[in-house]
Design a protein that fits this description.
Layout: H1 4-11, H2 15-30, E1 36-37, H3 49-61, H4 64-68, H5 77-91, E2 100-103, H6 105-117, E3 123-127, H7 133-140, E4 144-148, H8 159-165, E5 170-175, H9 188-205, E6 210-214, H10 230-233, E7 237-242, E8 255-258, H11 266-280, H12 287-296, H13 304-320, E9 332-333, H14 342-350, E10 354-355, E11 357-358, E12 368-371, H15 376-393
Parallel strand pairs: 1-10, 3-4, 3-5, 5-6, 6-7
Antiparallel strand pairs: 2-8, 7-8, 9-12, 11-12
The chain binds pyridoxal-5'-phosphate (PLP).
Pyridoxal-5'-phosphate binds at residues 41, 105-107, 131, 176, 180, 214, 216, 242, 244, 250, 255.
């Protein structure tokens, strides 16, 4: 007999993965160039050249035992110091290496934070539209997910709905800005209002409501859009970051949790994050890649391609009559489905070899997600299919 929850997670593929696997099978039949796959958020631009240079240098310079050996459980101290110095410089803060816990990407970082903060019976609030894995991570931490319904005009926050969800059981709130899948960035005004509400509720409930800022897309912000630094606005913020998107390294599994010293009971919270890393088997993020991250933490891949793709798709789809909210970052577009049943619309697109993900998978029905981290020719090839669907449904 196996664990029922784990069995269910292992057996049920996400809608995104289903579409992606379908696309691979279909490509084998009709040819890759005839399948317009916009399902998966895999970066389409190469890492910056410094990534390869650094790996070569590290491999040639360092003693292999030291390079490939275990580091300290939370990450190599020199690596953490280097990343902390970068954060201090970039965000005008005082970050120390001992406040960072290196992990296998943002996914592991989120799991560590949630397991560290939640007790049985607790609740964690998320905002639709949301990264579907949040539900898995929160349940595994023994808590219940409460979804704040989407504000679908500007994809900011519906504060009345949020206030109704906050309760003495709320252990944490997760924000993700720039957002997967809406591409929206929370404005400073939105985040200040959120901070004020959480401060008020923390006082009223007699427990801090921690804010987990899941920000793997921080660097992918368009036209100078400001992505506010949350620890400056709300004291009890934990930052979860990864280089999966900014350096195009999703397969290398590297990121961190930052527990600023200002956080309530920060030493305890940090120790619990480390304890969660231990309990979940995440200690010692990949050793070579830790060193790579330290050397390249001030760099990004050439992210301009995403902004160009966003502009092209937004303009073309709007001209066809689609309702497309303005993307401010990430590599996702989240247009309104021309028919209320987004799954039916996704199936109609799939029948024409256009793979786009129904918004219901992100707790936001009535929309579809287009992951435009793809070669330009795929976008250009897909436009006639989008047009045919617009003519049929709009
Ligand atoms: N959070 C969000 C919103 C994401 O979109 C993703 C991945 O796509 C993750 C977390 C996990 O990222 P990582 O590859 O760093 O584990």
């Amino acid at each position: 007999m196996v664990n029922r929850d784990m069995l269910a997670y292992g057996q049920a593929r996400s809608v995104i993965r289903e579409l992606f696997e379908y696309g691979r099978q279909r490509a084998a039949v009709v040819g890759e160039e005839h399948v317009y796959d916009f399902s998966l958020g895999n970066p389409s631009v190469a890492p910056p050249p410094e990534v390869e240079e650094t790996i070569r240098r590290l491999v040639s310079e360092r003693d292999p035992c030291a390079l490939h050996g275990y580091t300290s459980a939370p990450g190599d101290p020199a690596v953490r110091e280097r990343i902390a110095a970068s954060l201090s410089r970039r965000f005008g803060t005082v970050c120390k290496g001992e406040e960072l816990y290196l992990t296998c990407g943002a996914a592991a970082g989120l799991c560590c934070c949630l397991c560290a903060l939640c007790q049985p019976g607790d609740e964690v609030i998320t905002f639709a539209p949301l990264f579907p894995e949040y539900g898995v991570f929160i349940r595994t931490a023994g808590a219940a997910m409460k979804v704040c319904p989407a504000e679908t005009e500007a994809f900011q926050i519906d504060f009345a709905a949020l206030e109704a969800l906050l309760s003495p059981k709320t252990a944490a709130v997760i924000v993700n800005s720039p957002n997967n899948p809406s591409g929206a960035v929370y404005s400073e005004a939105t985040l200040k209002r959120l901070a004020a509400l959480l401060e008020e509720k923390s006082r009223a409930f007699g427990r801090p409501v921690y804010l987990i800022s899941d920000e793997p897309y921080r660097e992918i912000a368009f036209a100078g859009t400001d992505v506010p630094w949350l620890p400056r606005l709300y004291r009890d913020t934990l930052v979860v970051y990864s280089w999966s998107k900014s350096l195009s390294l999703p397969g290398e599994r590297i990121g961190y949790v930052y527990v600023p010293a200002q956080v309530t009971e920060s030493a305890q919270v940090y120790a619990a994050v480390a304890g969660a890393g231990r309990a979940l088997g995440y200690v010692c993020a990949p050793s070579l890649i830790q060193r790579l991250a330290a050397a390249c933490c001030d760099l990004t891949a050439d992210l301009t391609v995403y902004e160009e793709n966003a502009r092209l798709l937004t303009r073309e789809l709007r001209e066809m009559g689609y309702h497309v909210p303005r993307p401010q970052g990430t590599f996702y577009l989240f247009p309104r489905s021309p028919i209320p049943d987004d799954a039916a619309f996704s199936r109609a697109a799939q029948a024409l070899d256009l793979l786009i993900v129904p918004g219901s998978g992100f707790h936001c029905p009535g929309h579809v997600r287009i992951a435009f981290c793809v070669p330009r020719r795929r976008i250009e090839g897909a436009l006639p299919v989008f047009r045919a669907l617009a003519q049929r449904y709009l």
